[in-house]
Request: fold
Amino acid sequence: MKIHMLVFRRLVINLALVLLCRVSYANDACSVIGKYVNVGVEQSEISEKIFGIEREMSELRYVAEIENSIGNDHYEYHDYEKFIKCIDGYDSRFIKRNSTYFKLSLISVLKNKMPVSEEKRIMKYVIKELHSDDNLILGQAVRATVPFNNDMFIPYLKDIIINNKNNRGLQKLTIDMLSYISGSKTREAFNEIKNEISDPKLINLIDNRLNKFNDMYH
Reply:
């Protein structure tokens, strides 16, 4: 009986922890970011205004730490709304200049449906960042297209693959993310991209994705 009670109590505790985690995802992500409010930024504000954001390795390390913390969980729409209000409330240059990246990180792991009007609003936000000159933001915007599985993103992802021939890493990432969008338009886009690029490794990657794509959707 004691063993049974012990097992039961552990199950109750574990269930309580799961429920608490579901409620506090946004707060947890917010508190994680809050620990970095005093991170220094080496680039001067004048330089940032003239040349755009340039991050040193130390800053990139902190950005990666926060992204990993966010990426370890899954969030629903109400978590995203809380997170936005929270992150916009921090008076920290480090957080402010990387806030778009953190928001896109959370969007990339959103789960379940959201109100249609809000989904459209967030998709427009992602599309806006798919035009970013900041490669860090651009890559994260590409990842943020995945939860929506919407062919609205196809022309933007296609352009990124074709027009970033000097950034193979970004091209490969975008090819992978494009393959998450189901439908014939994705297949058409891949075939059109193959006609626009000459890198044999990327063409091979596209062929690989097309084969998997055909297996999944046929």
